[in-house]
Design goal:
The radius of gyration is 24 Å and the shape is globular. The strands form two sheets. Strands 5-4-3-2-1-11 form a six-stranded mixed β-sheet. Strands 6-7-8-9-10 form a five-stranded mixed β-sheet, with helices on one face. Strand 3 and strand 4 form a beta hairpin. The chain has two domains: about 240 residues, no CATH class; about 250 residues, Carbon-nitrogen hydrolase (Nitrilase/N-carbamoyl-D-aminoacid amidohydrolase, 4-Layer Sandwich), CATH 3.60.110. Helix content is about 45%, strand content about 15%. It is an alpha/beta fold and about 500 residues long. The chain starts with a helix and ends with a helix. Helix 3 packs across helix 10 and helix 10 packs parallel to helix 17.
């Protein structure tokens, strides 16, 4: 092990860059859909050994950048799929977009590596890596509109037990402990075994603590509420074709008719290719398949025509009752740059990649809807579900989360699995169940512990029915947000300072 660490530390030039990028790509194997968590040990131990071999902060920055570039390139390659839904218009953007996004996000990891290099060698750098990586993930979630995709914590999304820690310390705190456990075996290069023992103990604590929480879990459901999630499986390049709109609308209607037990039918994002509020005949058709006294909740496009002229478009959710009336509306607040609007439009000679040329307008933010026959709900459209602190109205706690999305953009790639894992983690953090209707999958009902009750896989067409699980009391994370995470950061910094002072003494 000493010889391997020494060989990595001694790498220079393109060999060092290639190794760093390869290690970053290996780390991505821990994320959905592979979930090979031991890959994190290889990635982070290797990164530490590479940093140990750098002569200074600038070289560490470069090494970290290459690691981040490989990591994000392997995790976000699916961006190409979204652009290739219209290759004639956007095919030329595939390489610049995938490489550019990966290169930009890699700067966060470069800064992490630079900070690690400043810490005292050994345990100090191991702690610094965990703290700085988690801090960088938090910053990535809020800077430049935020993009908290593929957080390290999502490596646990396939296992309910270790996920439970997110109810206390949130995804960034869970990510911190995960990176720490993965990096601690780096001390094997110095002949030490304590780091590996502590790493195993950390993982055991996450699993046993989660198992203890799940041992007291409830399987209770909301009385009188059965959801039917419709997954039409419409290819993105078919979705907005004028000649197909009627047939696709009819497909949604047909899939809405089920066993007769459902009280609420849920369609995915932009399921209706019309301005539904302006289409009484379409609403009557929906009313005909709406459960008696129930609702159809669907994603749609909504428009407003201001008195001064022009038009405002909204990516919306609308609830339709069995008389065809719109009884609830939510407008998406967190829009996707370049997907739903073009930042700096006057300077960039491109249009958004979604249908139409008009930018969408943003809604007011997280909102709790009171809908007939249902507990209060927080609607989340598409990637609004990836923001840990942005899924509920802090003034009015909902009793469940509703995520409608159109993951057809991602094709058959890792993207839909990564998106689903993020939404799944929100249930544990908030103690709220989730209903998720996705055009091409993954659609699911998930309870407040992150356990999947019913699921329809990627690329499947059909519908699933399940009762709505009950909400839990607000979790510590729901009450206090990142407070526990901040405490972990503070303790870690104090430990590093203590190690530095001990070395100087």
């Amino acid at each position: 092990m000493n010889r391997l660490a020494a060989r990595l530390a001694a790498l220079t030039g393109w060999r060092r860059a290639a190794m760093a990028a390869a290690l970053g790509a290996v780390g991505a194997a821990a994320l959905p859909p592979v979930y090979f968590v031991p890959a994190l040990v290889v990635a982070f131990v290797g990164l530490l050994w590479l940093i140990d071999g750098t002569p200074g902060v600038r070289a560490a920055f470069a090494t970290g950048w290459w690691f981040g570039f490989g990591h994000f390139l392997a995790g976000l390659y699916w961006i190409a799929n979204a652009l290739m839904t219209d290759p004639a218009r956007y095919g030329w953007l595939v390489a610049p977009a995938v490489l550019g996004v990966s290169a930009a996000l890699a700067v966060y990891v470069a800064l992490v590596a630079a900070l690690v290099r400043l810490a005292p060698a050994g345990l100090g750098r191991t702690l610094a890596l965990a703290l700085a990586w988690a801090g960088a993930e938090w910053l990535r979630g809020i800077l430049f509109t935020g993009f908290p995709w593929n957080l390290v914590a999502y490596s646990w999304a396939a296992w309910a037990a270790p996920m439970q820690a997110a109810a206390l310390i949130g995804p960034f705190g869970l990510g911190l402990l995960t990176v720490l456990a993965a990096a601690l075996p780096a001390d094997l290069a110095r002949g030490g075994r304590l780091g590996s023992v502590v790493a195993a103990a950390l993982v055991a604590l996450l699993i046993s603590g989660g198992a203890l929480r799940l041992a007291g879990a409830t399987d209770a459901t909301v009385a009188g509420v059965v959801l039917r999630l419709v997954q039409p499986n419409v290819a993105q390049n078919h979705k907005w074709r004028p000649k197909l709109r009627e047939a696709l609308f009819r497909r949604h209607l047909a899939l809405s008719v089920g066993t007769g037990k459902a009280t609420t039918v849920i369609w995915p994002e932009t399921a209706v290719p019309f301005f539904l509020a302006e289409e009484p005949a379409r609403r009557r058709a929906i009313a005909a398949v709406t459960p008696p006294g129930g609702l159809v909740i669907t994603g749609t496009i909504r428009r407003e025509l201001p008195a001064g002229g022009g038009v405002r478009l909204f990516n919306s959710v609308e609830a339709i009752d069995d008389r065809g009336a719109v009884v609830g509306v939510y407008d998406k607040a967190h829009l996707v740059p370049f997907g739903e609007y073009v930042p700096l439009r006057t300077l960039l000679p491109i249009t958004k990649i979604t249908a139409g040329t008009i930018d969408f307008s943003a809604g007011p933010g997280p909102r709790t809807l009171d809908l007939p026959g249902l507990p209060p709900v927080s609607p989340l459209i598409c990637y609004e579900a990836i923001f840990p602190a942005g899924v509920v109205d802090p003034e009015k706690r909902p009793q469940w989360l509703l995520n409608v999305t159109n993951d057809a953009w991602f094709g058959t790639s890792s993207g839909p699995y990564q998106h689903f894992a993020a939404a799944l983690m929100r249930t544990v953090e908030q103690g709220l169940p989730l209903a998720r209707a996705a055009n091409t999958g993954i659609s699911a009902v998930v309870d407040a512990y992150g356990r999947i009750v019913a699921r329809l896989g990627l690329g499947e067409g059909g519908a699933i029915e399940a009762p709505l699980p009950v909400a839990l009391a607000p979790t510590p994370y729901a009450r206090w947000g990142e407070t526990a995470f901040a405490a972990l950061l503070g303790l870690g910094v104090l430990a590093i300072l203590g190690l530095a002072a001990r070395r100087r003494g």
